[in-house]
Amino acid sequence: MDLRAHRVDALVLRAIAYGEADAVVHLLVRGRGRISAFARGARSSRKRFGGALEPFQRVEALVAEREGQELWALREARVVEAHPRLRDDLHRIAHAGYAAELIHELTRAGQPADALFALMEDFLTRLEAGVANSARSSCSRSNRRGSRRSSGRARGAAPKFLPGARDSIPTPAASSARGVPVRRGRGRPWP
């Protein structure tokens, strides 16, 4: 049984296809936090959803909490801000996807997270307007000067062990004596 429907401002974190025409949509809702909603006919109904369930979009959604169920009912959604430039660049998509995944994992269902909503909205706007660089491009600059491992040792950034820690590291001889398979040439047991 559906309770009263609410019109909410939300960011689409992810949408997962369910069956032939339905979807389960994870939304970050202003004032309500993260909710999961079942969108019946979402992949076939252009009138009610019209592409509004794509990740990273800000939508105005009509949702209804269903009594005794974790999933809300998503009745309709309208795009407020689509962030179209995010989809032009793979790095932007990767950054936005990573942020959406972080928000999803850092929030609990039903707990208000207005600060995270504002932060995510600002992040997506800035990401769309700016240039997204990958971490690899900055690493490749450091690799031109030499490998990170050798340059780290030269700068004194090699790993340091606490006193007595070396005694607890298994050696190939000790590992094979206990019957643990050892990788050849590396001296470490299989994970």
Helical/strand content category: alpha+beta
| CATH topological fold name of one domain | OB fold (Dihydrolipoamide Acetyltransferase, E2P)
The amount of beta strand, in percent, is 25-35%
Secondary-structure element order, N to C: EEEEEHHHHH
Shape: globular
The whole-angstrom Rg is 24 Å
State the helical fraction.
25-40%
What is the assembly state of the chains in this entry?
single chain
- The CATH architecture of one domain would be Beta Barrel
Order of neighbouring strands in the sheet with most strands = 1-2-3-5-4
**CATH domain class of one domain:** Mainly Beta
In total, the number of strands is 5
Give the N-terminus to C-terminus distance in angstroms. Answer: 50 Å
Name the CATH superfamily classification of one domain.
Nucleic acid-binding proteins
Flag low-confidence runs: 137-153, 165-169
- The overall pLDDT average reads 77
Largest sheet data: 5 strands, mixed, barrel
Put simply, the count of helices is 5
